[in-house]
Amino acid sequence: MPVICISSSEKDSGKTAILSGIVQESLNRGIKTYVGELENNEIVDHKKINQLLELDNRNSLKNSELIFVEINQMEFSKQKIILDKFDAKVIFIERDSADINSIEKFFSERLVGFIINGVLKYKKNVIESLHNQKVIAILEEQRFFMTKTAQDLRDVLSTKKVLGEESLNKIIENYLIGGFVLDWGPEYFSTRKNVALVVRGDRPDVQLSALQSGTLNVLIATSGISPVEYIIYEAKKLSIPVLIVDENTEEAISKLSDSFEINDFDHNEKVMYSNRILNDNLNFDKLFDIFSTPITK
User: Fold this and answer.
1) E strand or H helix at 293, and its extent?
2) 179 Cβ partners below 8 Å, 6+ apart?
3) Among 164, 197, 218, 254, which has the minimal tally of Cβ within 10 Å of its Cβ?
4) Looking at 48-204, which runs of residues are DSSP E strands?
């Protein structure tokens, strides 16, 4: 069975995000897929991706048709030993193209190719102009991977009460501050998706407009003021959680802004997003053919 490793020469290159998107594609194709990581130079279950994809050890190492392994922070010489041990191929996830020639030379026939990840738009043409056939995809920087959940916001703020705890897993992509809205309310709030509204608890006009927009994923009521009963009723009906926090609106926004520095790949929607981005930017049919082709030495 083919073993495909996902590696990088640097930290925070997006290996887990890209690996999860590739694994999702493998599952979509009906392939018995195992995803693992290394522990004492042996392949063990990749706990995070297994949890995100709800695999629950559906396929073991022995009965899988395709095995993916994430390699974390390992010298190239040691990686080469691992690849030889499992007769594996490797994809490198890099932030730029600076080291790809030396990596290609070192790993030679075991290298499937490079995915250049998190590229700024203006640099994409520069990398494309290199015409390196081992560059199998160039992915632009994706803001969606920086998103948090309503649960994360609850933990960041001084939350005194939560209404609708069962819905705290909703993704938050945009933040809107309640105030004087000149446009028709629901239309204004519908200009963004996966919205967190940060507004004083005693602004039912703004809160109702946001609830009617169809894009609200959490309502943050500031200054310790609980929204009125009919707002709570509407939020419950729409399965939108309400956080009642001690901070005023300005303080809440400041705390939320500071929290953006820490990101984690922690949601199934991020897996699906990764899979869509990869489908838009690489040829999966060709890639899976390479996976199944024996290494020529």
Assistant:
1) none
2) 199, 206
3) 254
4) 66-70, 89-94, 111-119, 135-140, 148-149, 159-163, 171-172, 174-177, 195-200
Residues 276, 237, single domain; the answer is no
Q: Is residue 69 part of a domain?
A: yes
Q: Is residue 94 part of a domain?
A: yes
How do residues 71-114 score in pLDDT, each as one tens digit? 998 999 999 999 999 999 999 999 988 899 999 999 999 999 99
DSSP class of residue 159?
A: E
pLDDT tens column, 208-261: 999 999 999 999 999 999 999 999 999 999 999 999 999 999 999 999 999 987
Cα–Cα distance between 23 and 275 in angstroms, integer? 9
Q: How confident is the prediction for the chain on average, in pLDDT? A: 92
Contacts of 168 (CB under 8 A, 6+ apart): 149, 150, 151, 154, 162, 218, 241
Q: 174-211 burial, b if ≥16 CB within 10 A, otherwise e?
A: bbbebeeeeeebbebbbeeebbbbbbbbebbebbbbbb
297 domain residue, yes or no? no
251 lies in which domain range? 148-259
Whether 8 and 113 map to the same domain: the answer is yes
Tell whether 245 and 278 lie within a shared domain.
no
CA distance 196 to 67: 39
Distance CA 172, CA 131 (A): 38
Residue 103 falls within a domain, yes or no? yes
> Would you state the pLDDT for residue 184?
54
Say if residue 72 is in the same domain as residue 113. Answer: yes
